[in-house]
Amino acid sequence: MKTPGAFLLLLLGLVLPAPVEMEADSLLYPYGPAQGDQQNPKADDGASPEIPISMIFTFYGKEHRSLYVNNNGVVSFGVAVSQYTPDPFPLADGRPFVAPYWGDVNNNLHGDVYYRETQDPELLRRLTSDINQYFPAIPFTATWAFVATWDRVAYYGSTSQKVNTFQAVLANSGKVTFIMLNYGTIQWTTGKASGGDANTGLGGTPAQVGPLLQQT
């Protein structure tokens, strides 16, 4: 399946300079082994293997037939991303990726990173309803989705119990693509190697958020 290049962003939940607490699962779509998710390896700065997808995903005018889910809070196209300290946006090298929370995750310490491609009717109905609620003027019926979830992940160098839960959902109708970023509990912004405090996970160069990272 080939999709046009138009896409829109929807963020659910807040990302603030200070950490925030929310109902961790209130906004997230179902995830985990019970949903048939694959799981990333426990590896600092690691990533999934290259993941073929069943449709051609057009992002900033370029067609992609696969993607990577990176432990450091990024869904990327073309190449995995091991970089743990985020660069300012827009990226000078034009790397195309979606960053629900680009920061120095260490799932060796705590947490898991899950992903799946899906055409599950129940999930697609919920996606359609959510997107229609926020964008009623745009005709949209989801026919395909990719869900990546970082579940209770710790930061590099952590000496605390602070964890983050967040999710990226790529949704397509055959005509329009939405990128939805969902947030549960957010307790840290920065790993120790990025200048963050080992006890608080704050300071230094904090995590960056945003899907539209290609310089034009």
From TrEMBL:
<protein>
    <submittedName>
        <fullName>Tectorin alpha</fullName>
    </submittedName>
</protein>
<dbReference type="InterPro" id="IPR003886">
    <property type="entry name" value="NIDO_dom"/>
</dbReference>
<dbReference type="Pfam" id="PF06119">
    <property type="entry name" value="NIDO"/>
</dbReference>
<feature type="signal peptide">
    <location>
        <begin position="1"/>
        <end position="22"/>
    </location>
</feature>
<dbReference type="InterPro" id="IPR051495">
    <property type="entry name" value="Epithelial_Barrier/Signaling"/>
</dbReference>
<dbReference type="GO" id="GO:0007160">
    <property type="term" value="P:cell-matrix adhesion"/>
</dbReference>
<feature type="domain" description="NIDO">
    <location>
        <begin position="100"/>
        <end position="216"/>
    </location>
</feature>
<keyword id="KW-0732">Signal</keyword>
<feature type="region of interest" description="Disordered">
    <location>
        <begin position="197"/>
        <end position="216"/>
    </location>
</feature>
